[in-house]
Design the sequence.
């Protein structure tokens, strides 16, 4: 302990001693892996799926007995890019770390490379993966999968943000499933942030992945676990933090792991040794984050140049949890046009492209809680939000 300058991590890979809670989830995942179940892990963004999976990979009983591959396909656009990410995970996998293993992996990928006619002279010098369009996409994937079938240790492959494959032009689920089901010594973990898309893939009878994985919903870290963690971290470093202030952070950010870690990281850095962080230090930390993100938020507002979308966006921001957006009351209160134009603006704001607003049951919220706080700060409503954090979080829970 005490190696890190700051015990509140905001990166995906977190050393065990700075990892908060998730003991039951870790045990459960290890249990499923050891018993050969594929898993589909779901939760809203930034609650901690990727970090948890990395944490599981790092457990002795997993690390020593399995080859672990983490394939992040977020942002990939087609099967070729998917395959490329898989190849990258191969180059990174434990079996590629030994000299002999590295040779084998290189040979494997080079084989696929030559086979795809991507290397006209058949050499592997200047070896670069997936730079050209591949004629037969299933070739390199098939090669890689048959390699996996013959590894000394069993394998675990995480496909992170797996719902991304639904946007590929190819029939990706069918292509991938055909390969996946051939393997006898590899466990697959499909992880993703879009609950309804993953449910469709894994729970609809006509879908290729129907019932091929055990679902796990990752919930928020419970308030008392996060409080205990935060206090313990401060104390290790000869500092302290007010538990009530931590619970305000929890409520204010609805238990979003990333947001809380970001705030606590700042609060920790602002607290001198021997002192206790209180609400005012927490506020300083939030202030500091909002200052740093100021240019991002200004840009986002600049890009929101459609007057209707902009006013609907501000309306959602001010409401916090915006209910009855197309009601006469709201339309009047915010001087909006009419129900159908509000509806249209909402569909733009929630679209993948804009991605500024999200839906929660019947309500709408800004996707980024810091953005909401930034607007509130500019309108001198920040204190009000803090005073009402608990009620607001409870309302959010009652909607979802
Ligand atoms: N158990 C944890 N303890 C401490 N920090 C965590 C924990 N889980 C996640 N985090 C932090 O929250 C951030 C968001 O988590 P991440 O795993 O990226 O979420 P997701 O994959 O669900 O979008 C991570 O970058 C990490 O820094
Ligand atoms: Mg993730």
Sequence:
């Amino acid at each position: 302990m005490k190696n890190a300058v700051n015990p509140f991590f905001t990166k995906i890979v977190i050393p065990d001693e700075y990892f908060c809670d998730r003991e039951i989830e870790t045990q459960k995942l290890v249990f499923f892996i050891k018993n050969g179940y594929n898993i589909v892990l779901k939760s809203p963004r930034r609650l901690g799926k990727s970090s948890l999976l990395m944490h599981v990979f790092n457990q002795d009983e997993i690390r020593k007995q399995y080859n672990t591959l983490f394939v992040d396909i977020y942002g990939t656009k087609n099967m070729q890019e998917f395959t490329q990410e898989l190849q990258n995970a191969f180059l990174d996998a434990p079996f590629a770390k030994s000299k002999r293993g590295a040779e084998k992996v290189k040979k494997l990928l080079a084989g696929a490379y030559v086979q795809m006619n991507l290397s006209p002279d058949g050499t592997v010098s200047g070896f670069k993966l997936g730079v050209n369009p591949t004629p037969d996409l299933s070739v390199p994937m098939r090669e890689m999968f048959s390699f996996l079938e013959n590894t000394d240790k069993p394998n675990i492959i995480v496909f992170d943000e797996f719902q991304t494959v639904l946007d590929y032009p190819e029939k990706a689920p069918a292509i991938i499933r055909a390969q996946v089901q051939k393997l006898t010594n590899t466990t697959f973990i499909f992880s993703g942030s879009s609950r309804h898309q993953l449910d469709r893939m894994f729970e609809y009878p006509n879908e290729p992945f129907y019932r091929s994985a055990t679902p796990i919903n990752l919930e928020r870290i419970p308030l008392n676990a996060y409080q205990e963690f935060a206090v313990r971290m401060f104390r290790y470093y000869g500092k302290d933090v007010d538990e009530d202030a931590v619970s305000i952070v929890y409520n204010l950010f609805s238990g979003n792991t990333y947001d809380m870690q970001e705030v606590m990281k700042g609060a920790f850095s602002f607290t001198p040794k021997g002192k206790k962080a209180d609400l005012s230090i927490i506020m300083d930390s939030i202030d500091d984050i909002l200052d740093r993100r100021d240019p991002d938020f200004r840009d986002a507002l600049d890009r929101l140049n459609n007057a209707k979308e902009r006013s609907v966006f501000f309306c959602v921001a001010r409401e916090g949890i915006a209910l009855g957006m197309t009601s006469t009351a709201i339309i009047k209160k915010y001087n909006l046009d009419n129900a159908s134009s509000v509806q249209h603006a909402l569909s733009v704001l929630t679209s993948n492209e804009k991605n500024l607003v999200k839906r929660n049951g019947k309500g709408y919220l800004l996707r980024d809680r810091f953005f909401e706080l930034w607007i509130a700060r500019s309108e001198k409503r920040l204190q009000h939000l803090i005073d009402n954090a608990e009620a607001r979080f409870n309302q959010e829970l009652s909607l979802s």
Notes: Residues 114-128, 130-135 have pLDDT under 50 and may be disordered. The two ends are 38 Å apart (CA to CA). The CA atoms of residues 290 and 374 lie 6 Å apart.
